[in-house]
Amino acid sequence: MSDPLSASFRAARAQLVAALAARFRDLDLAEDALAEAFARAVTAWTPLPPRDPAAWLYRVATRIALDRVRHAAVRAVAMLSEPEPEPTPEQLMIEACPIPDERLALIFTCCHPAIQPEARAALTLRVVCGLTTEEIARAFLVPEPTLAQRLVRAKRKIARAGIGYAVPGPEAWAERLDAVLSTLDVAYAQAHADGAGLGPHAAYAREMLRITATLTQMMPDEPEVLALAATMRFTEARRPARVDGKGSMIPLSKQDPARWDKVLIAEGQALLARALAIAPARPRVLAALIHAEWCSRPSLAEPPPWSTILAIYDALIAVRDDPITRLNRAVALAEVAGCAAALEAVDALDMPGLASFLPYHAVRAGLLHRLGLSGDARAAYERALTLAPGEAERQWLERRRAEVTNG
What we know:
By secondary structure, the protein is an all-alpha fold. It has helices at 3-24, 27-44, 53-72, 89-92, 102-110, 117-127, 133-140, 144-161, 173-192, 204-218, 223-237, 262-278, 283-295, 306-319, 323-337, 339-347, 358-370, 374-385, 391-406. It is globular and about 65 Å long. The two termini are 46 Å apart.
C-alpha cells in the first residue's frame, strides 16, 4: 500500500464507512465496498494520488456498492441515484451536528441502544477505529470467535431493524454514554499499550485527549466523563518517562517523575477534582484517583504510595469487580502483603480471555520470578512474548526472561 493511500486510510476510513453505511443502511456492504475501492486505488493512484483522495474513494466505493445492490436486486424503497460529482463524506453528515467533533459523533452514532450492550463498544471499535477482531477480543477478555459472533449479530440487527446512522441529539446521549466511554477507553489503551508510541494505533493517544476534551465540554457535569478525561491525561503525562535510552519499557514504579508532563497532570487534577465533587465513588472516578496518586509522587526518592493505591483498588472492586481491576490490584498487593498473596490472587482469576491477555502473563511472570520459581517464570515470560508486544515491551520482557534464565 502506497504512502498516500496509507495516509488516506488512516485519515478517512471511519468517515467513509459511516457515510456509506448511512447511504446504503448496510454496514457489511459499506466496509466491503470501501475495501474494494482501496484495492483499486493501489493501481489507480499511480504515479500521483487524486487531488481529493477521500472524495475519490467515496465516489468509487459508492459505485461499487450501487453495482452490488443492483445485481442482488435488493434496492431500497427509494431509488438509489448515481452519486454526484466529487462528493465528500463530510457533506453527508448533518450540517448542524450537535456533537462538534466528527470522530466522536461517529462513535455516538454507532453506539445505538438497539444493539446489545456487550456489542456496542466492540462494533464501534471495529467500524470507527478500525481495530481488528483479535485486538478487540483481547481488550474485552473474550475469545475471538465469541467476539466475532457478537459483531455479526450486531450487524444483522442493524440491517434487519433498519437502524439509521443519524447523529443523535443531546436527549439520546445518556443512554449511549457507557458504550461511548468504553470505546474511548479501549481505543486509548491500544495506543498506551505500546510504550514507545511506534505501533499502528499510536495516533489514538493524542486523538483521545482531543475527543475527551470535547466530551467534557458537551457534558461538563458528568463525573465519568470528567474522570476518563483525567485518567487519559495522567497516563499520557507519563509517556516521556516510559522508555529508556535503549528503547526498553520502564515500569511505572521506576519512572522518573521529573520527566512527566506537568501541564497534563495539572489538567487531570482539575478534571478529577470536579468529578470527585460530584460522585467520588463512581468506578471511573476511583480509577482516575489511582492515576492521580501515582502522578503526585514527587521523585524517585519518594517510595511509591502502594498502601494508598491498594486501598483505592479495594474501593474500586466494591463497585466494579472485573479481572483487569483485580490483576492491577495484585501488583499493589505484592508490595503490601507480599508476592505469595499476590500470586494467589492472580491465579484465582477465572476468565477465558486472560489466556490471551499479555499483562496477565507479564504480572504473573514477575511474581513467579520474585518468588524464585524460575521455570514457571520463564514459561510465563515466553507466553507473554508470543502475544505481539510492542517493541519497548518486547525488550523489557526479553530482559526479564534472560534474568530468569541466567539466574
